Amino acid sequence: MKGLFKSKPRTPPDIVRQTRDLLVYADRSVSIPDLRESKRQEKLSELSKNLRELKLILYGNSDAEPVAEACAQLTQEFFKGDTLRRLITMLQYLNLEARKDATQVVANLQRQQVNSRLIASDYLESNIDLMDFLVDGFENTDMALHYGTMFRECIRHQIVAKYVLDSQHVKKFFYYIQLPNFDIAADAAATFKELLTRHKSTVAEFLTKNEDWFFADYNSKLLESSNYITRRQAIKLLGDILLDRSNSVVMTKYVSSMDNLRILMNLLRESSKTIQIDAFHVFKLFVANQRKPSDIINILVANKNKLLRLLADVKPDKEDESFEADKAQVVREIVSLKP
């Protein structure tokens, strides 16, 4: 007789629906009135268990790989209703372990395909205001790393990255990557890099439209920052951006600016070998430009001896034939310049 009353095992959609219903208990201020705190904690414990189960379905474990069909069912149910919105907005009210599990679930769902479609992208396109919530989360010290991970995974979708680049949010990263909390600043820097390198055509369009203010801020706030780590990350990212073929038009304009050249020459003088080498990879673009404006030529000629001495000292720790060949070419070009 006992077997007749066995409960049916829960399907992935069941777990998603129950999770959605349980999220209402997360925020005490909007939770069901007159609910005893002990009962609410019971519900939150159930919610944490569900989030662990969702993570297990999506990621598998040491004993079993994820099952594609279960992942597809879970993903479809998750984006049917407002589960993602509820989970993101209620995240701050969950305990640390539940937050970690929820963050991993949201991150994984951005990559899940249903019938060869990334349905997370369609959902976010219709609920794009969630990106406003996540980007402002960088200012919440307790939540920034959770929100940052979710945000970075969401901008894998081109439509989402375009929204962020076309909004005022992109300007906030000049501040976020210099926050005093090292972990949050590093996370913001990783997100800024993703935003400016992943979707080539979208980034090229953004830079072409916004190059004047963007590079003015990039130079003054990042490349000329008093913070060594900020300068090191910024010069590396600048090289990644300018050396990308998609940004060739923007690159040509950047290397025609006297102010930009002055900043790069100062970075070549840094005591940090890492900054020197990354600065060299941008500096060589100024020298290699076959249509150098006269003021660029004049600066290079006026500083010829200083630059040759500087370049003689710029060497990577390990032998690098490609780097040495580039440097030899730059030196030849500078030596041959005439006012």
From TrEMBL:
Superkingdom of source: Eukaryota
Pfam families found in the cross-reference section: Mo25
Example of a GO MF term: protein serine/threonine kinase activator activity
Coiled coil, from the record: none
A single BP term in Gene Ontology: intracellular signal transduction
InterPro entries: ARM-like, ARM-type_fold, Mo25
UniProt family annotation: Belongs to the Mo25 family.
UniProt protein name: Mo25 family protein
Organism whose genome encodes this protein: Brassica campestris (Field mustard)
Organism classification: Eukaryota, Viridiplantae, Streptophyta, Embryophyta, Tracheophyta
